[in-house]
Amino acid sequence: MFSSRFHWDLQRNRLTELLAAKRVQGARILDLTQSNPTRAGLEYPEQLRRVFHDPAVLRYDPLPAGSLEAREAVADYYRQRGQAVEPGRILLTASTSEAYSYLFKLLADPGDQVLVPRPSYPLFEYLAKMESLEVRQYPLEYHAGWAIDMDALASAITARTRAVVLVNPNNPTGSYVKRTELEALMRIAAGHGVALISDEVFSDYAFAADSARVASLAGVEECAAFSMSGLSKIAGLPQMKLGWIVVAGSPRQRAEAMEKLEWIADTYLSVSTPVQCAAARLLEHGAAVQRQIQQRTAANLAFARQAFAGTALEILAVEGGWSITIRVPRVRTEEEWCLDLLERDNLLVQPGYFYDFESEAFLVASLLTAPEEFQEGLKRIVEQTSRLL
Fold first, then answer.
1. What whole-number distance in Å separates Cα of residue 299 and Cα of residue 223?
2. What angle do CA 111, 189, 208 make, to 5 degrees?
3. How confident is the model at residue 9 (pLDDT cuts 50, 70, 90)?
4. Residue 327 pairs with which residues in a beta bridge?
């Protein structure tokens, strides 16, 4: 009686089962998978408590693209980063996940395909299947740094491909799209009549400047392109539920895409009035949270590099984001690494196969973790590695 969209195995995996058992036992778990900034021990400005003290929150104006005031606040966010984005090219959503849903509805019919990076965050298959779409993967290659395999990407395109998804920077590899890669991507997209979808939620979290990388696809004109971001990551405010899509491409493509996106958004009208009224102040006060996250992720990365120096552990090159990928000795599987760390050391990390790494053995840890927990967790990884070798 239920839709065929729900074809996933809902059984808990061994790591989840062990974690649940540990918590029942009352074990104190060092969680190096933390991705929720509101639970990471950050200080949130007191002003955030007062941003909804506005009489306008009691008036409902159902505008499909979102209020002009909120879209101007988003445009100002891009302006501060040197990018000219008119409010008329911005459409508000309740989240980046909803933005994906809108874009998949805009670009594809049931049975069509979207290309997504591998390795990357394990969300695309779920989002695509909810729209009755097929996911095909294109590889990111690692040779002292990450790069898109353009030949493999081009070969993966079929007559039913409608979009290429980029995560910029990618999660968990922390790799940005480079300018040379974008030039090739635009040629491929224009030549095949497909769109580029760029997930840029971690774009503000670079560890160093690099003129070779692309911060956003918001200025692309050579092909249809859509940039997405939101308060969840850039301001550390996932609870506020505000994301957006910036429409790029030729003037004709932009106009047609915005018209159709507004039709889709008008069907749902999901973005709340209070968060739209507060958007400018949320971005303003959220900047203080962003700075804390930038400082923490940079400090944790520096500690990790120092902690692993001279050991059999290696951090793969990372340019930005909230995660690191740790190459561990292949003396056992990733699952065995994670299960043993949890069983013996009460330490939770994620295996690389959660993110579709093509080979073993990798562990993924969050740089958002509170420093004292992060440092102790890495020490336990080093100690267990020493015991094994």
1. 39
2. 115
3. confident
4. 314, 362
Q: How is residue 212 written in tokens?
A: 């070779």
Mean pLDDT within 331-337:
96
Fill in the DSSP letter of residue 49: G
Q: What percent of the chain has pLDDT over 70?
A: 100
Residue 7 has pLDDT above 80, yes or no: no
- pTM metric for this prediction: 0.96
Within 8 A by CB and 6+ apart from 232, the residues are 95, 96, 201, 238, 240, 243
CA distances for 316 relative to 105, 143, 301, 386, angstroms: 36, 10, 11, 20
Give strand pairing partners of 246: 90, 227
| CATH 3.90.1150.10-classified regions of the chain | 14-43+285-388
How large is the average pLDDT for residues 103-119? 98
Which phi and psi (to 5°) does residue 339 adopt?
A: -65, -40
What integer best gives the mean pLDDT of the chain? 96
Cite the beta strand spans of 29-102 per DSSP E: 30-31, 90-93
Report the distance separating Cα 203 and Cα 105, nearest Å.
Answer: 25
How many CB atoms are located within 10 Å of the residue 221 CB?
12
Q: Note the helical H segments in the chain.
A: 14-24, 68-79, 96-107, 124-130, 150-156, 179-192, 231-234, 251-268, 273-277, 279-308, 334-345, 371-388
**Please, which residues bridge with residue 164 across strands?**
115, 196
pLDDT at 12: 86
Give the three-state DSSP class for 320. Answer: strand
SS percent in the chain: helix, strand, coil, step 5: 45, 15, 40
278: tokens are 């507060």
Q: Write down the architecture of domain 14-43+285-388 according to CATH.
A: Alpha-Beta Complex (3.90)
The CATH class, in words, for 53-284 is alpha beta
Q: How far is CA 311 from CA 195, 326, 347, in A?
A: 44, 12, 19
Positions of CATH 3.40.640.10 in the chain: 53-284
Q: What is the pLDDT of residue 4?
A: 81
